[in-house]
Amino acid sequence: MKPAAASEPLTFRAVAIGLVACAALAVATPVSDFLLNGTWLAACHLPVGVVCVFVVLRYAIAPVIARLGRPIVMSEWVTIYSMMLVSAGLGSLGFAAYVVPILASIPYYATAENDWLALFGQHLPSWIAPLDERASRLFFEGGNASIPWGVWARPLLLWAAYTIALLWAMTCICLLLLRQWIERERLMFPLVQLPLELLRPTSTGPDGGRLPLLLGAAAPFLVHGVNGLHLYVPSVPHIPLFYDAGRYLVEKPWDVLRPLWVILHFSAVGFVFLLPIDLSLSLWAFYFVFHAQSLLLVVTGLPLGRSTGYATRGFAAYQMAGGILLIAALALWRARRSLREQLHAAMRPADDEDGPLSSRGAYLGLLGSVALLAVATTVAGAPVGLAVWFVGVFLVTMIAMTRMVSEGGLLFIQTPFRPTDLLVPFAGGRVLGAGAATVLAYPEMIFAFDVRASPMPSVMDSLKLLDSSALRRRGFLAPVFAACVVTMVVSAAAVLVIGYHNGAGTVSGWFGVGAPQLPFRRLVEQLTNPPDPDYYSAAWMGVGAIVVSGLHMLRARFLWFPFHPIGYAMGPSWPMIQLWFSTFLGWAFKYIALRGGGLKAFRTWRPFFLGLVLGEFGAGGFWAVVDFICGTQGHRIFLF
Questions:
Q1: What is the pLDDT, as a whole number, of residue 126?
Q2: Which of 12, 290, 371, 633 has the smallest C-beta neighbourhood within 10 Å, fewest atoms?
Q3: Residue 38: CB partners within 8 Å, gap ≥ 6?
Q4: How far apart are CA 103 and CA 126, in angstroms?
């Protein structure tokens, strides 16, 4: 990829501003996650915190910098935004919010009743997690205790290195797929549209070209403003944005349709408006297709199955798994020509490519990082085959999930399975063994359990943003990875400070109590009652792959075919449980606009719907600051 105007150099000023912004987010995110239990600032693929900080930089700080010296130019904004975007999730579910409590979990939550130490304690190398009872107890109970940095230094350093290796593998995959997705398939990258809109030069005129955007932002900001005031001043009326329609579904078999939540997320409506009409239709329509399947299974007496730790029922989870794996396979198949061309380029001695990394560097970086991850997992106690399975399946899954974000504009994604969940139906639970199951419990919970903050989709979005700028490609990755290192260090330290001062187990029911115990409760179940091969679940995986394959072929054969495989693969996942109604509204508005005025109406209304995103995210950031000042907890206005 050789953009003609990629000539502007990376500046020290942009890197410095980016690092300061990332460090600030790395503190604010654990404070919001643990202390406030409020809106998650970094737990989606367009993080609320990143948007809010970027707006402050763009419209409050940048004018001051311009008065004092040279204005911040487009290439510098790309650097700053990309540093924040890729690193933000590492301060939350992508690293710090899980790794610290989970590493401290066993010495504190192990009891004579649950028998954790007897069941799997012998399989835990001390360098994986600090098995110090006092250090763990003080972290969960607090009391302004001093932090035993020496106990934490080695395990956190090792897990940070593991995370960087995983991030490097994801980055290399994104670089290898970038040409196919941007130049040949021309994916939409909907989540990149808001920063591009904010960076667009304003047109001339009395409104500066921003009036539709500002009108769109005003609606959610006012609604959340009223609801926020209601929290502090109960006499202010509350505008309901949540309705539990499942309250009427109490009789069998209709109770199987629960939960059925009607939630208005303005930002989801805004992004869905940008999507192709077939994709937005499929996202909410297939949610109800899966509900119909649940009802049919109950009526016919077939089991629904289970997926430990997820809201998605087992039969649906395995359908989604089959569909997701096939989406990844199709993405790689479509990219075969591009991948082959880059492989040939990697074998040439000369390197005149103008990408962030040469083809040779991308291929060698991917192979090296995967090998390093597999060796590290093997040294920890997992057999080589299982280590390769975990790393390989996770990365393949993330290819599909990144595709869903790049093409489908999904604000957050979640797979209702872990890599080992896809092995057990075919080989049974005993194939893992106590040692491997124990070792894999850590990375599966930290990286694979909830991928809504995984950095891979953000890496791809940043590369798309880079492609839209004149910033010189070489050297772009260095500040991004520096931002990731700063975020991991600062956010992990912030979590430790919060824990030892306030008590992680007392301030956060999920991060301090539920999440740290979940992988080991599942591990106990695996070790005490290892499941036999489950061909019923395996068959549902096959169904998912067949349906996605059929949808793909129908779309290729009939241009009018109205359903998209991504909608099916998202199924009744946690994101769709929350977002189906907002997705329906976004589809309906887009449908009405196209029917009433065609593409001209869509272009006219596009800034307004981007404004919905900006207004809701801005309200989330505003109330996070107010809640922190007032010490208010549990005020979350965006996603669960």
A1: 75
A2: 12
A3: 32, 623, 624, 627, 632, 633, 634, 635, 636
A4: 11
CA distance 152 to 134: 12
Beta-bridge mates of residue 244: 261
CA distances from 124 to 73, 108, 121 (A): 51, 15, 6
Q: What string of DSSP letters covers 463-530?
A: HHHHHTS-B-STTSHHHHHHHHHHHHHHHHHHHHHHHHHH-HHHH-TIIIIIHHHHHHHHHHHHHHSP
* Separation of alpha carbons 499 and 487, rounded Å: 18
Q: What is the pLDDT of residues 173-228, one digit of tens each?
A: 999 999 999 999 999 999 999 999 998 876 444 444 588 999 999 999 999 999 99
Terminal-residue alpha carbon distance, the chain: 39
Q: Using N-to-C axis directions, what is the helix angle for 277-300 and 384-408, rounded to 10°?
A: 130
| Euclidean distance between CA atoms 468 and 6, whole angstroms | 9
Q: Could you report the per-residue pLDDT of 382-402, keeping only the tens digit for each?
A: 999 999 999 999 999 999 999
Tell me which long-range contacts 113-120 makes (C-beta under 8 A, separation of at least 24).
Answer: 114/521, 114/524, 115/524, 116/520, 116/524, 119/434, 119/523, 119/524, 119/527, 119/528, 120/434, 120/437, 120/438, 120/520, 120/523, 120/524, 120/527
CB 593 within 8 A of CB 602: yes
Q: What is the pLDDT of residues 517-546, one digit of tens each?
A: 999 999 999 999 998 999 999 999 999 999
**Residue 129 — pLDDT band, cuts 50, 70, 90?**
confident
Contacts of 443 (CB under 8 A, 6+ apart): 162, 377, 390
Joined tokens for residue 350: 């000369």
pLDDT at 352: 54
Q: Give the DSSP H or E segment for 165.
A: helix 149-179
Q: Which of 54-58, 259-263, 466-470, 490-494 has the lowest mean pLDDT?
A: 466-470
Rg of the chain in Å (alpha carbons): 24
Whole-number Å distance between alpha carbons of 551 and 612: 32
- Reply yes or no on whether the pLDDT at 607 is more than 60: yes
CA distance 570 to 400: 11
Q: How many CA atoms lie within 13 A of 584 on its CB side?
A: 14
Q: Structural domain boundaries of the chain?
A: 12-200+212-630
Q: What is the rounded CA–CA span in Å between residue 443 and residue 314?
A: 22
pLDDT for the residue 144: 86
